[in-house]
Amino acid sequence: MADEARVNNFKKEFHNAAAKAVTAKQEAKKRYDEAKEYGMTNDPFDAWVIQNDPAFINVYHMYTDKHYMLTEAFTFYDEGKAGEWNKKFKDLRSKWHLGYFGNGKEKGSDFIVITDEDVDRYEEILEEQWKLKNGD
């Protein structure tokens, strides 16, 4: 029972960190787009954000830390369920990184944010993206 409560606590922490990372990334992209518009950079987003937005980098590192903490707690509590959850997480991240989903805006990005809702909707997301890709 205590282990389940611990996992649930880590889930909440991960959820909050992911939400903050999504917001921080959106704000960083706005600043990046403005910098590009005004001719202040020709760098890709990933290179620009490392040099120019330490606040986002900080939030992103907190997000990745919470992901690893959740994975560890999950593994200790229920290794099978943890493996399944982490497989979905990694698969979504890989597909977004390689540009399989959507319009490929995240292709090659090192700053992809996968939320717990994304993992929970794994099959639905795969189906939606398959339909988009195949024109169904």
Quick tags:
136 residues; mainly alpha
What's the layout of helices and strands?
Elements: H1 2-37, H2 45-52, H3 54-77, H4 79-98, H5 116-120, H6 122-134
Helix pairs in contact: 1-3, 3-4
Please give a structural write-up:
The chain is an all-alpha fold and 136 residues long. It is 78% helix and 0% strand. The protein has helices spanning 2-37, 45-52, 54-77, 79-98, 116-120, 122-134. The protein is flat. It starts with a helix and ends with a helix.
User: What's the overall geometry?
Assistant: flat
Percent of residues in beta strands: under 5%
Oligomer: single chain
**Share in helix:** over 70%
Helix and strand composition category: mainly alpha
What's the N-to-C terminus distance?
Answer: 45 Å
Taking all Cα atoms into account, the compactness measure Rg is 17 Å
Number of strands: 0
* Helical segment count: 6
One letter per element, helices H and strands E, the order comes to: HHHHHH
Poorly predicted residue ranges? none
Structural domain tally: 1
Mean pLDDT across every amino acid position: 87
Major sheet characteristics: none
Kindly summarize this structure in a few lines.
With 136 residues, this protein is mainly alpha-helical. The chain contains 6 helices and no strands.
